[in-house]
Structure formats: C-alpha cells, structure tokens
Write a structure and sequence with these properties.
Layout: H1 3-24, E1 35-42, H2 50-60, E2 65-68, H3 70-75, H4 77-85, E3 89-92, H5 105-123, E4 129-130, H6 139-147, E5 151-153, H7 166-176, E6 181-186, H8 190-205, E7 208-210, H9 213-218, E8 226-227
Parallel strand pairs: 1-2, 1-6, 1-7, 2-3, 4-5
Antiparallel strand pairs: 5-8
Helix pairs in contact: 2-8, 5-6, 7-8
C-alpha cells in the first residue's frame, strides 16, 4: 500500500472514531455558547441583610449589581464601601425611592444626582445605570435620566421576592432564567437570602455564569431591558 493510501486510511479511521464519540457521549459542550445571567439587588444597603448577601455571593465566587437607594447609602456608607470592596457593581436606585412619574423634572434630577454624588464621594465611582422604583417610568423619566448621564435598566426575571416565600422565589427564577437574563431581587427579604444559595447552585449546574449588569450589556446581552436603546 502506498504512503498516500495509508494516509487516507488513517484519516478515515479518525473520522470514524470521532463519529463514534459523538454518538456515544454528550459532546454538546464543545459547541455550547457561554450562558450568562446577571443578579441585581435593589433597595439597600441594609444592615440586616447586606452582610449575609455579600457572604452568599462570596461563597459562590460570583459578582452582582447593587442598585442602591441614596438615603440608605447616607445611613450606612460603610456597607456601600463593603459592596465595592467585594468587587460588585454599584448602580443608582434614586435617593428617596419615590415614584418618578409623579415628580417634576427637577425633582427627578435631584433623586438621581444626589445619589450619584453620594456614591462618588464614598467610593469614588461614577454610576451610569439606574432603575426606577417600582419599575414606574415614562418618556420624561427616560429623557431626564439621559440628561443626567444615566441609562435606565429594568429586568427580565422578577420573582416578586418582596412578597413570596423562598420556594416560590426559587421556582420563578429557575423557570424563567435564560441566557442574558437580568434577575431583580431585593436587598432585604429573609426569604431572598434563603432562596439565593439554591438559585445559584441550580443555575451553575445548568452551566450559567454570573456577571455584573454592565459587563453583561458589554457582551451584547440583556440590551432589551435598557433605555434609551442607543
């Protein structure tokens, strides 16, 4: 047999071998696209829950995004520093947690800029994302936020953890999680703290990786929940 024929037979054997491997074993991981998800925590910092929340995230070795309320930051600046020191993203959730659609344009600006300045003073960060309290917004809120240097971020998964028990919180997140999902949780409810480790464990088992919201957006995912679009 010539060298050319030997080479051809060898190549054919490799093809057959690879085909058998694909038939016998689960090789989907070779072609799987990285699945990312972002956990966001609203309304803190809170001395009754933030330390526990940070420990859960540390133990799982994941980073999240904290949408903080200015008046809470004013009361608990050391907790904000701790959030920052652990490598989590900090974003704006207004100063007084008021319905922005019911405020004047100047008051909307005050709600956003007071918190922005406070965060800058405490941890040296310039925040650029904000979430409206209660998800209440209109075109004026979006435009006013843009003028203040913000983009409005919403969410794609909300288990209503402010009023649901931990098993329901867990089920709603796990059932609705998709690649690029942004999960809204609160920095406060005890049931959230109970459900969170199980949520993280299950999503990791499903090959999800956790990222901050800004990082998720920079990778082209989750953009449908951010306004203005451009």
């Amino acid at each position: 047999m010539s060298l050319k024929n030997i080479s051809w037979v060898y190549s054919l054997r490799k093809i057959v071998l690879f085909a058998l491997i694909f038939l016998i074993y689960d090789t989907s991981f070779l072609f799987s696209k990285e699945k990312l998800i972002s956990l966001t925590f609203h309304d803190g910092p809170n001395p009754n829950s933030t330390p526990q929340l940070l420990k859960i995230l540390d133990d799982a070795n994941i980073k999240a995004t904290f949408f903080v309320v200015g008046k809470m930051v004013k009361k608990y600046p050391e907790l904000l520093k701790e959030i920052h020191a652990r490598g989590h993203e900090i974003a704006n959730h207004t100063y007084n947690h008021r319905n922005l659609t019911m405020l004047s344009t100047s008051d909307i600006m005050s709600e956003l800029l007071r918190t922005k300045i406070l965060i800058k003073e405490i941890v040296g960060l310039n925040t650029h994302l904000f979430t409206p309290p209660g998800g209440r917004f209109d075109s004026r809120v979006i435009e006013t936020a843009r003028i203040c240097g913000f983009r409005m971020a919403l969410w794609s998964v909300f288990p209503e953890d402010h009023r649901n028990p931990s098993p329901v919180i867990y089920e709603k997140v796990i059932t609705n999680a998709r690649d690029g999902s942004v999960v809204l949780l609160h920095n406060g409810p005890q049931d959230t703290l109970i459900a969170l480790p199980k949520i993280i464990e299950k999503l990791k088992a499903r090959a999800y990786k956790f990222d901050t919201l800004s990082s998720l957006l920079s990778k082209g995912k989750g953009k449908h929940i951010v306004y203005p679009r451009n």
